[in-house]
Amino acid sequence: MGIDITLHLPSNQKGSGQPALALENDGYYWFLHQLFSSLAEHTGRYIDLYGETSFRLHELAHLDRFLFEARALVSEQPKQWQVNCGTQTHPVKKEILESVTQKQFKVILDQLENIVNKARESKGVITFEGD
């Protein structure tokens, strides 16, 4: 399960509709989850593993702010750290932790920033679609 992030270009432009980035149900998604929740409070649009939402040209500033906050939060972490991805309840209750790195976060956030910039330049729409 994950989230496909797709840039939809206006009909007169080529290259639209293919997922440009995927976030998986892993430590990277769950570390960003707090920021997705904050984004939803400000926009009414929740990026999650099950739903679908989109951002149009006039809403891209919200994603710019998300990226700024995500980069700041990641920069406060060590080069590698553990993220709680949930709780296993059976057969034994335990926290599910996954290791994440600043380096991979930079790759993910850079890719998302490129999608936002392309959407702005082309007047496109970005969709976030959960599985």
Characterise the protein shown here:
The protein is of the alpha+beta class and 131 residues long. The chain has one domain (2-130): Hypothetical protein yfbM fold (3-Layer(aba) Sandwich), CATH 3.40.1760. Helix content is 41%, strand content 31%. It contains 3 helices and 6 strands, in the order ββαβαββαβ. The chain has helices at residues 27-43, 60-75, 102-122, and strands spanning 2-8, 19-24, 52-55, 80-88, 94-101, 125-130. The strands form 2 sheets. A 4-stranded antiparallel β-sheet has the order 2-1-6-3, covered by helices on one side. A two-stranded antiparallel sheet has the order 4-5. A hairpin with a 5-residue loop joins strand 4 (80-88) and strand 5. The longest helix has 21 residues, at 102-122. It is globular. The protein starts with a strand and ends with a strand. The mean pLDDT is 94.
Q: Bin the strand percentage.
A: 25-35%
Helix content: 40-55%
Tally of individual domains: 1
* Average pLDDT taken over every residue: 94
Q: What is the CA-atom radius of gyration, in angstroms? A: 16 Å
Bulk shape: globular
Number of helices: 3
Strand order of the largest sheet: 2-1-6-3
Find the count of extended strands (DSSP E, 2+ residues): 6
Largest sheet composition: 4 strands, antiparallel
In CATH terms, what is the architecture?
3-Layer(aba) Sandwich
| N- and C-termini, Cα separation | 5 Å
Which regions have little confidence, pLDDT < 50, spanning 5+ residues? none
Sequence of secondary-structure elements: EEHEHEEHE
Alpha-beta classification:
alpha+beta
